[in-house]
Amino acid sequence: MDIIEKICENNSKKILKAFQINKVSEAHFASSTGYGYGNIGRKIINNVFAQSFGAESAIVSSNFVSGTHAIATAIFAVLRPKDAILFITGKPYDTLEQVINGKNCCSLGDFNINYQICDFLNDNIEFFLKNLPKVVYLQRSMGYTLRKSLKIYEIECLIKKIRKISPKSIILVDNCYGEFVQEQEPTEVGADLIVGSLIKNPGAGIAPSGGYIAGKKELVDLCEQRFLAPGLKNTGASYFNRELLMGLFYAPLAVREALKTAVFASKLFEQAGFEVFPKFHEERADIITAINLKSEENLRIFCKCIQNNSPIDSFLIPEPWEMPGYDYKIIMASGGFISGSSIELSADAPLKEPYTLWFQGGTNFYLAKYTLINALNLILKK
C-alpha cells in the first residue's frame, strides 16, 4: 500500500504542475455552443492533459462516446488503404472486432487496410515486424484475457525492440485502465500515441463522458481532423470543461482507491480458494482484477452484490444481455454516478466458461471493501 500512496503523491504533483503552468482559471470552465469558435477552455484542457501524460499534444473531448471510439479515431487517422497494422499483444478487446474486420461498416477491412495479430509473449515478433507495419498496436490492460497487463518498463522494452526492426512504425497504445497506475505513461517511454476513456481512470468518476488521444503533435493533428472533419481543427461546442479538468485533477486519488480495492479483492478471494489475476502482492499495471468464480451462479451473485451495494440503482438485479460490440452475453454491475463508469465500483463478465469476472474501480475503498466481503459471504453461503 505504501507504493500505491507514493505513486498517487507523485502523479498528483505532476498534474498540479500542469494546471499551474497552463494558468487554468475560472474562465476556462465556460461552455460554448454552435461551432465553438473562441472556446478558450478547449485548448487549455488539451494542453493540461498533454502535459500530464508527458505528450506533445492531446485532443480531449466529451464527444468521444467511448474508449473504442477514440481508438478507432486514432487508427483511421494514421492508416491509409493498403497500409498494415500489427496487433502485438494478442487479440484486441472485443469491441474492436467490428472496427478491424466488420463487413460494410467502414471497418479496416472495408478500406483495404491489412492487419495481423501476434502475441509478443509466445510468438516471434521479429518475424511480424519485418513486414514493416505502418502501425504497431499495444493493449496495456489484459482485456477479457488472463495475460498480465503491461507495466511501463515492459512497454518501454517492447518499443525499443520495435524501433530496432521497424523504426518508422507508429506505436499506438490502448491506455485504458492504466492511467496513473504507475508514475509514467507510455508516451513518456517512446509511444507515439496513447488513447483512453474519461469514464475510466482519468475522469475519476467526475467526467460525465469522453475520451482522449495524446502523443506526437503531427499525429494528434491527424486524429483531430479524423474526429471532426478535414479542415475543422479547433472547433466544436464544449459542455463539460469544469468536469473534465476536475476529473483529471482528482484522477490520482481515484486510481489510488481503485488500486487498494484491487489488491484487497485479490487477497480476499485467493484466500477463499478462488484463482485471481494478478495476485495481491504483484506489481500493478492497471486497476483490473480477474477472478475465476467457477460458475454462472457465482457470477450472478457477485454482480448482484455489487449492484445492491451501489449508491445508484441499488434496487436493480443485473441480467446478462447482448451488449453492443460483443459476440456473447455479458453480465455487468455498475451503480456509479456516471453510467458505465469503470473507475467507480463495477464488474462485468462474459457468460461463458471458465466464468471469469473482471472487477475494477472503487473510488471509495472502505465501501468497496464492505461490498467485496458481502459478495464473498453470499457465494460461500450458496
Question: If you had to describe this structure to a student in words, what would you say it looks like?
Answer:
By secondary structure, this protein is of the alpha/beta class. The protein has two domains: 247 residues, 3-Layer(aba) Sandwich (Aspartate Aminotransferase, domain 2), CATH 3.40.640.10; 129 residues, Methioning gamme-lyase, C-terminal domain (Aspartate Aminotransferase, domain 1), CATH 3.90.1150. The protein contains ten helices and twelve strands. The strands form two sheets. A seven-stranded mixed beta sheet has the order 1-7-6-5-4-2-3, with helices on both faces. Strands 8-9-12-11-10 form a five-stranded antiparallel beta sheet, covered by helices on one side. Strand 11 and strand 12 form a beta hairpin.
Q: Give the count of structural domains.
A: 2
Classify the fold: give the CATH topology of the largest domain. Aspartate Aminotransferase, domain 2
Average pLDDT figure: 94
Structural class: alpha/beta
Relative helix content: 25-40%
Taken as a percent bin, the fraction of beta residues is 5-15%
CATH architecture group name of the largest domain: 3-Layer(aba) Sandwich
- Uncertain segments are none
| Backbone shape | globular
Largest sheet descriptor: 7 strands, mixed
Number of DSSP-assigned strands: 12
Number of helices: 10
Would you state the CATH class of the largest domain?
Answer: Alpha Beta
Strand arrangement, largest sheet?
1-7-6-5-4-2-3
